[in-house]
Design a protein that fits this description.
By secondary structure, the chain is of the alpha+beta class. It has two domains: 12-124, HIT-like (HIT family, subunit A, 2-Layer Sandwich), CATH 3.30.428.10; 135-202. The chain is 49% helix and 11% strand. It contains six helices and five strands, in the order ααβββαββααα. It has helices spanning 12-21, 24-29, 74-94, 140-207, 214-218, 229-235, and strands at residues 37-40, 44-48, 58-62, 99-103, 119-124. It has a five-stranded antiparallel sheet, covered by helices on one side. Strand 1 and strand 2 form a beta hairpin. The longest helix has 68 residues, at 140-207. The radius of gyration is 42 Å and the shape is elongated. The protein starts with 11 loop residues before the first helix and ends with a helix. 11% of the residues are buried.
Length: 238
């Protein structure tokens, strides 16, 4: 972020927008800054890291600006990890590496240097010396104490998360049902409209006067008064 900009009187939203405007990785995602793009879709982009930990080090990042992992929507995160899986498998096959490391620095204390969530995927070989973490000594008593401290919070968080997902699912089902009901109602209205139209046509047809054949009307009618009695008698052999 430029030094000359004073953020002391800015809101959190304004600071976030400023960070987004100055985010290098947002500019990479929008092609304002060139990069070695390996794959992209409408949600994420995968590029070669310019400071790789090993040959084939890939960065996978959302195209939208999210500073830390908890900010990313669940569906986008799921999509990104589908991409991570495919990228990891591709590295294993193409570079004949013995494994891959998948790494996220979430927060400054974890080593995050850019204000944009990045997922690192890089090839590994045995004894390559990468990510050698120091061991933290913990005895059984300390582990039990830590478990008792953490477990209730994890259960609370996961129960809440499950409840939210369940409510979203129910809401989605209800929306689907409402849409289906509306479609059925619209279909019934359309059917009734067509039926009313057909009935009206039939009714109009019945009201129309029957047309007589003009030729039939022009034929001379026999006058019963002029009938010859002798002719009638001949019919009976008289």
């Amino acid at each position: 972020m430029p030094d000359e900009i004073d953020t002391s009187n800015m809101s959190a939203e304004e600071i976030a927008e400023l960070q987004k405007q100055n985010c290098i990785f947002c500019k990479i995602a929008t092609k304002q800054i060139p990069s070695k793009v390996l794959h992209e879709d409408d949600k994420a982009i995968c590029i070669l890291d310019i400071n790789p930990a090993s040959e084939g080090h890939i960065l996978i990042m959302p195209k939208e600006h999210y500073m830390i992992l908890p900010h990313i929507p669940d569906d986008l995160l799921a999509h990104m990890f589908d991409t991570v899986k495919l990228m990891s498998n591709t590295l294993l096959k193409t570079l004949q590496c013995q494994g891959t490391s998948i790494f996220i620095a979430n927060g400054m204390a974890a080593g995050q240097k850019a204000p944009h969530v990045l997922i690192h995927v890089f090839p590994r070989k045995e004894n390559d010396g990468l990510l050698e973490l120091p061991k933290y000594e913990m005895n059984a008593e300390q582990a039990d104490k830590l478990k008792k401290t953490l477990k209730p919070y994890f259960e609370q968080v996961f129960n809440k998360h499950t409840d939210i997902k369940h409510k979203k699912k129910i809401h989605h089902i209800e929306e689907h049902e409402e849409t289906a009901k509306k479609d059925i109602a619209d279909s019934k209205k359309e059917h009734k409209k067509e039926k009313d139209y057909d009935n009206q046509k039939e009714h109009d047809k019945e009201k129309k006067p029957i047309k007589h054949d003009a030729k039939q009307d022009d034929k001379p009618k026999k006058d019963s008064k002029n009938v010859n009695l002798d002719d009638i008698a001949k019919l009976f052999g008289g």
